[in-house]
Design a protein that fits this description.
Blueprint lengths: L5 E5 L4 E7 L3 E4 L2 E7 L3 E4 L4 E13 L2 E14 L4 E7 L3 E3 L4 E7 L4
Parallel strand pairs: 1-3, 2-4, 3-5, 4-6, 5-6, 6-7, 7-8, 7-9, 8-10
């Protein structure tokens, strides 16, 4: 993540509702409500609030998330994340200090 190239940004103070798709890495620091689809990486920062159904390659959550996540490679949750919903992914990492309310599913390979 040192040489991170961001292809889509929802900055703090910005609110978007709808459907988002992107290639590369997207960062959400503002509010997003809707659906997100990508084969690549999504990052929700500490100030981000996402209420959505998400299907991505991988996702890192540091902010607030409500909804369902399907990740094809991994899900990482770092403090001070607050998560409410379901996660389906082959790899799930939840660090100490994260609030997790929901369910997780590991698909059979």
């Amino acid at each position: 993540m040192d040489q991170l190239s961001i292809s889509a940004i929802v900055e703090e103070g910005c609110a978007i509702e709808g459907r988002m798709s992107f290639s590369g890495t997207a960062k959400i620091s503002g509010q997003f409500n809707g659906e997100i689809f990508s084969r690549d990486e999504l990052i929700i920062t500490e100030t981000g609030f996402v209420k959505a159904d998400v299907e991505v390659g991988s996702i890192t959550v540091k902010g607030t998330f409500e909804g369902n996540i399907t990740a094809h490679t991994k899900v990482i949750m770092l403090p001070p994340a607050h998560f409410r919903g379901t996660v389906t992914a082959p790899s799930l990492k939840i660090e100490e200090g994260v609030v997790f309310e929901g369910a997780s599913y590991i698909p059979k390979t």
